[in-house]
Amino acid sequence: MTTPTTGNDSPTTFLVQLTDLHIREPGRLAYGRIDTAPYLERAVQSVLRLPQPPDAVVITGDLSDFGRAAEYEHLARLLAPLAMPVYLMPGNHDDRDQLRRSFPSHAYMAEGVGKAGFVQYAVRVGALRLLALDTCVPGASHGALCAERLGWLEAQLDACRGEPVVIAMHHPPFRTLIGHMDDIGLLEGAQALEALVARHPNVERVICGHLHRAIDVRFGGTIASTGPAPAHQVCLDLAPDAASAWTLEPPGFRVHAWSAQDGRLVTHLAASGRFEGPYPFHDNGALID
Length: 289
Prior knowledge:
- With 289 residues, this protein is of the alpha/beta class.
- It has one domain: Purple Acid Phosphatase, chain A, domain 2 (4-Layer Sandwich).
- The protein has 6 helices and 17 strands.
- The strands form 5 sheets. Strands 4-5-7-9-11-10 form a 6-stranded mixed sheet.
Protein backbone atom coordinates (compact mmCIF):
# COMPACT_ATOMS: atom_id res chain seq x y z
CA MET A 1 0.00 0.00 0.00
CA THR A 2 1.54 3.29 -1.07
CA THR A 3 1.11 6.84 0.09
CA PRO A 4 -1.48 8.39 -2.24
CA THR A 5 -0.22 10.47 -5.15
CA THR A 6 -1.87 12.18 -8.07
CA GLY A 7 -3.60 10.02 -10.68
CA ASN A 8 -2.65 9.50 -14.32
CA ASP A 9 -3.83 11.27 -17.46
CA SER A 10 -5.55 8.25 -19.03
CA PRO A 11 -8.85 8.95 -20.86
CA THR A 12 -10.46 6.43 -18.49
CA THR A 13 -10.17 6.62 -14.71
CA PHE A 14 -10.75 3.54 -12.55
CA LEU A 15 -11.64 3.97 -8.88
CA VAL A 16 -12.18 0.84 -6.79
CA GLN A 17 -14.35 1.08 -3.68
CA LEU A 18 -13.91 -1.34 -0.80
CA THR A 19 -15.91 -0.94 2.37
CA ASP A 20 -16.74 -2.41 5.79
CA LEU A 21 -13.63 -4.54 6.30
CA HIS A 22 -14.09 -4.99 10.08
CA ILE A 23 -10.51 -6.16 10.58
CA ARG A 24 -9.54 -7.38 14.03
CA GLU A 25 -6.20 -8.37 15.53
CA PRO A 26 -4.66 -11.51 13.97
CA GLY A 27 -6.58 -14.56 15.14
CA ARG A 28 -9.52 -12.60 16.58
CA LEU A 29 -13.05 -12.93 15.21
CA ALA A 30 -15.36 -10.04 14.33
CA TYR A 31 -18.59 -10.38 16.31
CA GLY A 32 -16.93 -13.45 17.84
CA ARG A 33 -17.97 -15.39 14.72
CA ILE A 34 -15.99 -14.51 11.58
CA ASP A 35 -12.34 -14.04 10.68
CA THR A 36 -12.57 -11.13 8.25
CA ALA A 37 -8.86 -11.06 7.32
CA PRO A 38 -8.87 -13.92 4.75
CA TYR A 39 -11.84 -12.29 3.02
CA LEU A 40 -9.94 -9.01 2.70
CA GLU A 41 -6.92 -10.90 1.37
CA ARG A 42 -9.14 -12.37 -1.37
CA ALA A 43 -10.57 -8.94 -2.16
CA VAL A 44 -7.10 -7.43 -2.46
CA GLN A 45 -6.04 -10.22 -4.82
CA SER A 46 -9.22 -9.70 -6.84
CA VAL A 47 -8.41 -6.00 -7.19
CA LEU A 48 -4.90 -6.88 -8.33
CA ARG A 49 -6.31 -9.27 -10.96
CA LEU A 50 -8.51 -6.62 -12.58
CA PRO A 51 -7.63 -6.28 -16.30
CA GLN A 52 -7.36 -2.50 -15.87
CA PRO A 53 -5.28 -1.51 -12.83
CA PRO A 54 -7.18 0.97 -10.67
CA ASP A 55 -5.91 4.52 -10.39
CA ALA A 56 -6.79 4.36 -6.69
CA VAL A 57 -8.73 2.46 -4.04
CA VAL A 58 -11.02 4.20 -1.56
CA ILE A 59 -12.25 2.36 1.53
CA THR A 60 -15.48 3.90 2.81
CA GLY A 61 -15.30 3.15 6.51
CA ASP A 62 -15.42 0.44 9.15
CA LEU A 63 -11.83 -0.40 8.39
CA SER A 64 -11.51 -2.04 11.80
CA ASP A 65 -13.94 -3.51 14.30
CA PHE A 66 -12.99 -1.48 17.38
CA GLY A 67 -10.57 1.21 16.17
CA ARG A 68 -7.59 -0.30 18.00
CA ALA A 69 -3.96 0.19 17.05
CA ALA A 70 -3.38 -3.55 16.68
CA GLU A 71 -6.32 -3.79 14.29
CA TYR A 72 -4.94 -1.00 12.11
CA GLU A 73 -1.50 -2.63 12.15
CA HIS A 74 -3.09 -5.84 10.86
CA LEU A 75 -5.04 -3.84 8.26
CA ALA A 76 -1.87 -2.16 6.99
CA ARG A 77 -0.27 -5.56 6.39
CA LEU A 78 -3.34 -6.83 4.56
CA LEU A 79 -3.46 -3.76 2.30
CA ALA A 80 0.29 -3.72 1.63
CA PRO A 81 0.06 -5.59 -1.74
CA LEU A 82 -1.93 -2.71 -3.23
CA ALA A 83 0.58 -0.64 -5.22
CA MET A 84 -1.89 2.08 -6.21
CA PRO A 85 -2.90 4.97 -3.91
CA VAL A 86 -5.24 3.85 -1.13
CA TYR A 87 -7.53 6.38 0.56
CA LEU A 88 -8.88 5.55 4.02
CA MET A 89 -12.05 6.84 5.67
CA PRO A 90 -13.49 6.21 9.14
CA GLY A 91 -16.79 4.48 9.84
CA ASN A 92 -18.69 4.08 13.08
CA HIS A 93 -16.45 1.14 14.08
CA ASP A 94 -13.31 3.27 13.70
CA ASP A 95 -11.46 5.79 15.83
CA ARG A 96 -10.42 8.77 13.71
CA ASP A 97 -7.56 9.79 16.03
CA GLN A 98 -6.10 6.30 16.18
CA LEU A 99 -6.56 5.98 12.43
CA ARG A 100 -4.35 9.03 11.92
CA ARG A 101 -1.73 7.75 14.36
CA SER A 102 -1.65 4.32 12.74
CA PHE A 103 -1.30 5.66 9.17
CA PRO A 104 1.03 8.67 9.50
CA SER A 105 2.15 8.45 5.86
CA HIS A 106 -1.40 9.20 4.69
CA ALA A 107 -0.89 12.94 4.78
CA TYR A 108 -4.31 13.71 3.28
CA MET A 109 -5.85 12.78 6.68
CA ALA A 110 -3.46 14.83 8.79
CA GLU A 111 -4.97 18.30 8.76
CA GLY A 112 -8.56 17.51 9.65
CA VAL A 113 -11.60 19.76 9.41
CA GLY A 114 -12.95 21.81 12.31
CA LYS A 115 -12.30 21.50 16.02
CA ALA A 116 -13.25 17.82 15.96
CA GLY A 117 -10.63 17.08 13.31
CA PHE A 118 -13.05 15.42 10.90
CA VAL A 119 -11.32 13.18 8.36
CA GLN A 120 -12.38 15.07 5.25
CA TYR A 121 -10.20 15.59 2.20
CA ALA A 122 -10.19 16.36 -1.50
CA VAL A 123 -7.86 14.42 -3.80
CA ARG A 124 -7.56 13.90 -7.52
CA VAL A 125 -7.91 10.39 -8.92
CA GLY A 126 -7.15 10.55 -12.63
CA ALA A 127 -9.82 12.81 -14.11
CA LEU A 128 -12.02 12.55 -11.01
CA ARG A 129 -12.13 14.71 -7.92
CA LEU A 130 -12.74 12.55 -4.83
CA LEU A 131 -14.30 14.37 -1.86
CA ALA A 132 -14.36 12.39 1.39
CA LEU A 133 -16.92 13.22 4.10
CA ASP A 134 -16.63 12.16 7.73
CA THR A 135 -20.09 11.10 8.98
CA CYS A 136 -18.94 9.58 12.29
CA VAL A 137 -20.38 10.41 15.70
CA PRO A 138 -17.94 9.25 18.43
CA GLY A 139 -19.39 6.43 20.52
CA ALA A 140 -22.48 6.06 18.33
CA SER A 141 -23.48 3.75 15.48
CA HIS A 142 -25.46 6.34 13.53
CA GLY A 143 -23.98 9.11 11.41
CA ALA A 144 -24.36 12.87 11.09
CA LEU A 145 -23.32 15.75 8.87
CA CYS A 146 -23.20 19.01 10.80
CA ALA A 147 -23.07 22.50 9.30
CA GLU A 148 -19.29 22.57 9.62
CA ARG A 149 -18.81 19.39 7.57
CA LEU A 150 -21.38 20.43 4.98
CA GLY A 151 -19.82 23.89 4.74
CA TRP A 152 -16.47 22.30 3.88
CA LEU A 153 -18.15 20.22 1.18
CA GLU A 154 -19.90 23.23 -0.30
CA ALA A 155 -16.61 25.13 -0.54
CA GLN A 156 -14.95 22.16 -2.23
CA LEU A 157 -17.78 21.75 -4.72
CA ASP A 158 -17.74 25.44 -5.55
CA ALA A 159 -14.00 25.18 -6.21
CA CYS A 160 -14.28 22.32 -8.70
CA ARG A 161 -17.32 23.20 -10.80
CA GLY A 162 -17.12 21.50 -14.18
CA GLU A 163 -14.94 18.64 -12.91
CA PRO A 164 -16.44 15.16 -12.42
CA VAL A 165 -16.81 14.61 -8.67
CA VAL A 166 -17.31 11.53 -6.53
CA ILE A 167 -18.42 12.14 -2.92
CA ALA A 168 -17.49 9.33 -0.53
CA MET A 169 -18.98 8.81 2.93
CA HIS A 170 -19.68 5.95 5.31
CA HIS A 171 -23.34 6.34 6.30
CA PRO A 172 -25.72 6.46 3.31
CA PRO A 173 -27.82 9.64 3.15
CA PHE A 174 -30.99 7.78 2.15
CA ARG A 175 -33.38 5.18 3.53
CA THR A 176 -32.52 1.68 2.33
CA LEU A 177 -35.75 0.10 3.73
CA ILE A 178 -33.60 -2.24 5.83
CA GLY A 179 -35.13 -0.92 9.01
CA HIS A 180 -32.53 -1.79 11.64
CA MET A 181 -29.79 -0.24 9.47
CA ASP A 182 -31.82 2.87 8.69
CA ASP A 183 -32.18 3.34 12.45
CA ILE A 184 -28.41 3.81 12.58
CA GLY A 185 -28.03 5.56 9.23
CA LEU A 186 -27.32 9.23 8.57
CA LEU A 187 -29.70 10.79 11.07
CA GLU A 188 -28.60 14.40 10.59
CA GLY A 189 -27.81 16.37 7.46
CA ALA A 190 -29.18 14.09 4.73
CA GLN A 191 -31.68 16.62 3.35
CA ALA A 192 -29.12 19.42 3.40
CA LEU A 193 -26.63 17.18 1.60
CA GLU A 194 -29.16 16.28 -1.08
CA ALA A 195 -29.98 19.94 -1.68
CA LEU A 196 -26.29 20.76 -1.93
CA VAL A 197 -25.62 17.93 -4.39
CA ALA A 198 -28.59 19.01 -6.50
CA ARG A 199 -26.95 22.42 -6.97
CA HIS A 200 -23.82 20.80 -8.40
CA PRO A 201 -24.67 18.64 -11.45
CA ASN A 202 -21.00 17.66 -11.83
CA VAL A 203 -21.38 15.27 -8.87
CA GLU A 204 -21.33 11.94 -10.66
CA ARG A 205 -21.83 9.68 -7.67
CA VAL A 206 -22.26 9.59 -3.89
CA ILE A 207 -20.64 6.35 -2.70
CA CYS A 208 -21.21 4.93 0.77
CA GLY A 209 -20.61 1.94 3.00
CA HIS A 210 -22.26 0.80 6.25
CA LEU A 211 -24.89 -1.45 4.65
CA HIS A 212 -22.71 -4.38 3.54
CA ARG A 213 -24.85 -4.56 0.41
CA ALA A 214 -24.98 -3.10 -3.10
CA ILE A 215 -27.86 -0.58 -3.10
CA ASP A 216 -28.57 2.25 -5.56
CA VAL A 217 -30.98 5.18 -5.40
CA ARG A 218 -31.58 8.47 -7.20
CA PHE A 219 -30.32 11.27 -4.97
CA GLY A 220 -29.98 14.98 -5.61
CA GLY A 221 -30.04 14.54 -9.37
CA THR A 222 -27.33 11.91 -9.33
CA ILE A 223 -26.94 8.33 -8.02
CA ALA A 224 -26.12 7.40 -4.43
CA SER A 225 -25.03 3.87 -3.67
CA THR A 226 -23.64 1.56 -1.04
CA GLY A 227 -21.11 -1.19 -1.62
CA PRO A 228 -20.91 -4.82 -0.54
CA ALA A 229 -18.38 -5.95 2.04
CA PRO A 230 -15.44 -8.29 1.44
CA ALA A 231 -16.81 -10.68 4.06
CA HIS A 232 -20.30 -10.65 5.63
CA GLN A 233 -23.36 -8.97 4.14
CA VAL A 234 -26.43 -7.57 5.91
CA CYS A 235 -29.42 -9.79 5.21
CA LEU A 236 -31.86 -8.53 2.59
CA ASP A 237 -35.08 -8.27 4.59
CA LEU A 238 -37.28 -5.23 3.96
CA ALA A 239 -39.91 -6.03 6.58
CA PRO A 240 -40.30 -3.04 8.94
CA ASP A 241 -39.70 -5.24 11.97
CA ALA A 242 -36.90 -7.37 10.47
CA ALA A 243 -34.28 -8.45 12.98
CA SER A 244 -30.66 -7.42 12.63
CA ALA A 245 -28.78 -10.23 10.91
CA TRP A 246 -25.96 -10.82 8.45
CA THR A 247 -25.11 -13.60 6.06
CA LEU A 248 -22.21 -14.95 3.99
CA GLU A 249 -23.48 -14.10 0.54
CA PRO A 250 -20.85 -13.84 -2.22
CA PRO A 251 -18.71 -10.79 -1.38
CA GLY A 252 -17.68 -8.06 -3.78
CA PHE A 253 -16.61 -4.48 -4.39
CA ARG A 254 -17.41 -1.56 -6.69
CA VAL A 255 -15.44 -0.37 -9.72
CA HIS A 256 -16.27 3.20 -10.72
CA ALA A 257 -15.02 3.98 -14.24
CA TRP A 258 -14.97 7.51 -15.65
CA SER A 259 -14.85 7.69 -19.45
CA ALA A 260 -13.60 10.97 -20.86
CA GLN A 261 -14.97 9.91 -24.24
CA ASP A 262 -18.52 9.47 -22.92
CA GLY A 263 -18.32 12.10 -20.20
CA ARG A 264 -20.00 9.90 -17.61
CA LEU A 265 -19.24 7.56 -14.72
CA VAL A 266 -20.14 3.86 -15.05
CA THR A 267 -20.25 1.71 -11.91
CA HIS A 268 -19.67 -2.04 -11.93
CA LEU A 269 -20.18 -4.62 -9.21
CA ALA A 270 -17.18 -6.96 -9.09
CA ALA A 271 -16.99 -10.34 -7.38
CA SER A 272 -14.35 -10.94 -4.74
CA GLY A 273 -12.53 -14.27 -5.01
CA ARG A 274 -12.20 -16.91 -7.70
CA PHE A 275 -15.18 -18.92 -8.87
CA GLU A 276 -14.18 -22.12 -10.64
CA GLY A 277 -16.39 -25.00 -11.91
CA PRO A 278 -17.76 -27.42 -12.42
CA TYR A 279 -20.12 -25.46 -14.68
CA PRO A 280 -22.58 -26.87 -17.23
CA PHE A 281 -20.85 -25.40 -20.28
CA HIS A 282 -21.35 -26.94 -23.72
CA ASP A 283 -18.79 -27.40 -26.48
CA ASN A 284 -19.96 -28.74 -29.86
CA GLY A 285 -23.06 -30.18 -28.26
CA ALA A 286 -21.19 -32.00 -25.50
CA LEU A 287 -21.74 -31.04 -21.87
CA ILE A 288 -18.53 -29.94 -20.16
CA ASP A 289 -18.49 -30.17 -16.40
